[in-house]
Amino acid sequence: MDKFKKADSAKLFWIVILGIVLYVILDVIAQALPPHYSPISQAESDLAVGKFGLIMTVNFLNRGVLSLLFIFAFLQTLDVNKVAKLPFRNGVYLLSVWAIGALLLAIFPTDVPSTPVSWHGAIRARARTFLIMHMKAVRSLREMTRILNTDQRIRRLCLIKDSQKGYTRSVLSRFSKRVGEENLNKIIDHKVVKLLKGQHNCEVDVVLDASFIKAWSIRHPTDNQTGYSDADARVGRSGRFFALGYKLHLSIDHKTMLPLSNGFASANQNEKKHSLAILDKAKRILQRCKAKVRSVVADSQYSGSKLRDAVEKATIPYPANHMKGVEGLLRVDRKFRTYGSDEQRKEYHKRPLIEAVNSFLKTQFSMANNKVRGLKQVAFYALCSILCLVLNREAAQDIGKHEKAVSPTYFNT
To answer: Which residues does residue 292 pair with via DSSP β-bridges, in sequence order?
Structure first.
C-alpha cells in the first residue's frame, strides 16, 4: 500500500514540476505581449486585465492548482515515511494561503488606468471617497464632488483616472444608502477583532459613553421637541444645554481605545435604555477575540441595577439622589470631583479615554460636520468616522509606529 502511495506522490511531484515549467512559459508570453508593460514598475496582476488578460488568468489558476497539488503530495510523502506533520504545520498553512491567493487573483483582477473599472474596484473607489471626505473634513457631498473634479491628489487617492469625471452627488448618495449601517458595522467589527487579537488581552475594561450629534435641521414650528426638515431628530441634552439631534452610544476598550460596539438613537433617549444592548455587542466582539469583560466604566447617566448586574464589576458613580446616606460609594459632584475608595477613583479615571475618542471623531474625523438628515444617514456618516479611527490604528500598527495610533494628524496631512 505504501508503494502505491509513494508512486502517486512521485507522479504528483512530476505534475507540479511540469506546472512550474508551464507557468514560466505562460508568464514570459504574458509579459512579452503587452507593449507598454514593465515588470519593474507594474504589478504582475496588471497582466490579468486587458486584451491578453486571459493568459495571465489561466496562469494564476495554474499557480494555485500546482501549489495545492504540491501540498497534497508533500503531506502524502510524510505519511508514507511516517514523519510527524507538526514541524511543517506553519509552512503548510502559509503555502495554502499562497495557493488560495493565486486562485483569488484569477477571480478578482486589478484595475489599471487604461482599462474600465471593475465592479469591485468601483466599490473600493467610492468607499475611499467617503473615508477621505471624513479625514479631510469635507463638509458635504456637494463640496466633495467639486474637489473630485479639481484636486489631482484626491482624484488619485479615490482611484479616479485622468480621463474620468469625478463622482456625482447622486452616485455617492446611492452608494451610502446601498451599503447602509449594517454592512459598515460588519467592516468595523472585522477590523476591530483583527486588531484586538494582536493585543492578546484576556480581560478588557469596557468604557461606555454617549456623544451628541447635532441635526441638520431647525425645530418644528408646531412641535418644539422634533425636527422640521429632519423628522427623526429630537431635542436632548448636549452638555449643559439642550439641542436638536442624535446620540452615538459607544463602548471602547480602555487600553487600545478601539470602539467595540455602537448604537444610534434620537437625542431624547436616555443612555440606560441602550446600555445593555451596547454591552452585549461588546461581549460578542470580545468573544471572537477570546477575551471577556473585566469591568464596565461609565458616568452616572448609566447608573442602574440592570447594568450593574450584567457584569462582575461596574465602576459607575451613583447620582446624588440615589442611595443617600450610604458611605463608601463612588460619587461625582458638579465640578467633576470624585469621592469614594482609592480603587474606585482609579478605575473611574479610565472614563476620560472615551471622551478623547469622541473628540477625535468630532474634530479629526468630521463626525461633527453633519449635513445629512434621517437616523440611517446620520448613522452611516458617523460610522465612516469610526472606521477612519480604526484604520488610523491599523495603519500605525502596520508601519510599526504604535504611538501614532492616537495621532490622527500623522496620517491626515
So the answer is: 203
Virtual torsion, Cα 351, 353, 355, 356, nearest 10 deg? 170
* pLDDT tens track for 146-172: 988 888 888 888 888 777 888 888 888
**What's the CATH number for 179-412?**
3.90.350
Q: How confident is the model over 208-231, as pLDDT tens digits?
A: 999 999 999 999 999 999 999 999
Backbone angles phi and psi of 213, in degrees to 5:
-120, 115
Tell me the whole-structure pTM to 2 decimals. Answer: 0.72
Domain residue spans of the chain? 2-107, 124-167, 179-412
